[in-house]
Amino acid sequence: MSSFVVHNIPGSPFGRAVLATLEEKGASYRVARVAPGALKSETHLALHPFGRVPVLEHDGFRLYETQAILRYLDRILPAPALTPTDPRAAARMDQAMGVSDWYLFQGAGHVIGFQRVVGPKLLGLPTDEAAIAEAMPRAKTVFDELARLLGAQSYFAGEAPSLADLTLAPQIDFFVGLPEWEPLMGPHRNLQEWHERMLARPSLQATTWEKVSARTQAA
Ligand SMILES: N[C@@H](CCC(=O)N[C@@H](CS)C(=O)NCC(=O)O)C(=O)O
Predict the structure, then answer these.
(1) Separation of CA 132 and ligand 1 centre (Å)
(2) Which of 21, 58, 86, 170 could be a cystine partner for 13, CB 3.0 to 4.6 Å?
């Protein structure tokens, strides 16, 4: 039996970052499906008092907050290392993870992803186009800044993938196929190439919404 259990909703970009990190490390794990309607249930609040996913359980140790989970995994499963040793490269990794949480998710993904995908697909809600239009200028600032931070590097912290790439790729991938993809990603060839590079990784291929869903149902 796997010693890693990830409580997750298939499709969650935060959950995918955790699963992709476990995949990168070659660790075996089990996904415990959380129904979207159960996030605020007493059972789930006992695991995550803020009623969100993911939650990691590892040999009696329980942890929520994706950045904390990723760093924990990188410390206890050291190979391959997903944090650069160079302090400035590590600082860029931390910065990109902060941008992902605070500006990409909060300012853009949370609104656009919810209005275009989560609301209609999971909750049967109509899309609020005005909310999307209001979020677009913030989203554009985020994508422009991510492209600037990436620059000519292959990955956000240099020439090897790091926790920053595993954090950002699931969030960016959520925009694929949406009408907002072209206006946000179109001007940034470097970001498009990085996204393709990340999606080609077995860790991202193994953790698509469909694959996690199928795997979770089978568990
Ligand atoms: N800060 C949290 C954010 C996690 C998060 O927002 N997860 C979303 C799913 S992608 C969620 O559980 N949303 C439920 C809600 O907002 O009620 C983390 O880093 O893990």
Answers:
(1) 19
(2) 170
